[in-house]
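User: Hello, can you help with two protein structures?

Assistant: Certainly.
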Amino acid sequence: MFEQHFSFEQTRRYYQNDLEGKRHILIALHGYGQLAQYFYRKFSCLPDTWGIVIPEGPHRFYLEGSAGRVGASWMTKEWREQDITDNNAYLYQLIEKVRRDNPQATLHLLGFSQGGATAARFYQQFPELVSQLILWASVFPPDIEKQGFPKDRKLDFILGKQDPYFDLKSIELALEEYDNLGFQNYTFEGGHDIDQQTLLAVLNNF
């Protein structure tokens, strides 16, 4: 048996508000098992000067069994290198389109949970496309060379103190790791979710 590959054009889905005249545009990558249209609601706190773009992960699946609610993901361990390459190409074309259509806007990239790893990998390759990188409740990708990670943009890391995916020790280690990478750390009293008050504080601190 021989593994074979071929390429073809794909169509990807994303959601946005009206971007015309916006001073800032937040591009937010959802976590594992989420859909872009519902993740979009977590950013209802953004002021009128902000635009929002929510790309959706390319792999959709039923969250329980073979019917019912559907979620999406960015990748799995299977053929991960190709998925990383495809995700970067997808996001590059989308963000370049947003930049061309809105030359007046400052672009900010946020990655939540699994989307954080995807955002970090994209930023490592194309740091010039955004002015701020926000990683939220995300483990820094072990495949990224830390010494070569770009630090010439605003870098922020956010984590809930009651996040079930991080115990007290892993919270401490994560904050130390991100601090060493040049990130400004934020914590809040909450779990594995977008805390709107913390989000606004981070964006206002740009």
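That covers the first. Now for the second protein you mentioned:
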Amino acid sequence: MEDKKIIELLKNKVCLKQEIFQRSKGVIKDFKEVLNELIEKLVKDFANHDKRVIISAEEKGEYAANVTIGSDTLVFFMHTNVFKLPEDHSQWQMSYLKDNPDNAYCSIIHVYNFLSDSFRYDREDDLGYLLARVFVNKEGHFFVEGHDRLGIEYRDLMHDVLDKEKIAEVLIKCIEYAIEFDLYTPPYQAVETATVYQLKEVNQIMKMKTGKRLGFKFQNEQDQII
């Protein structure tokens, strides 16, 4: 039986993905460590300002963590699969990928922004919005896709290496971005009806579907999507 091609694929592709996954486990560990340090500092520095404001971090398994800053909860999680950047991605314009296509394989850490009350009141239908995706390859090089400065400052996969200092910068920008965006009033049509079940108890009112609008238009608005 001819199995040389399978062996080559296992050596060249499967082993590569395993190498990236092992590295990414260290990356998400570093994310959690930096995150805890940042939250501890924020708690200390903000302690005398307003005790009503909740600032906390919570580990959610090996590959995820939640951070609550006031009315916002940021969810960080690493996908357990490794992905290859599509060939029409802008990063392929660099010699870094053209000379070594293996550099196009990355693990991804997602950062989502939810309302803290979505978790507090168990509103399972509430929406969270993707703030950023952090791509990390086998050499520890990275780039970020995201909103605002997050999608501009970290685009150089060839030269940017993800160390704890860079992780801290990305985390701070994610938190700043989440805090700066306010909860928008939903369109009247979205809340003009309610069921008896929703209104039966006062607590049920808190379960009406809610979500931040981060750079998106509601479906019934005629403006172009941002």
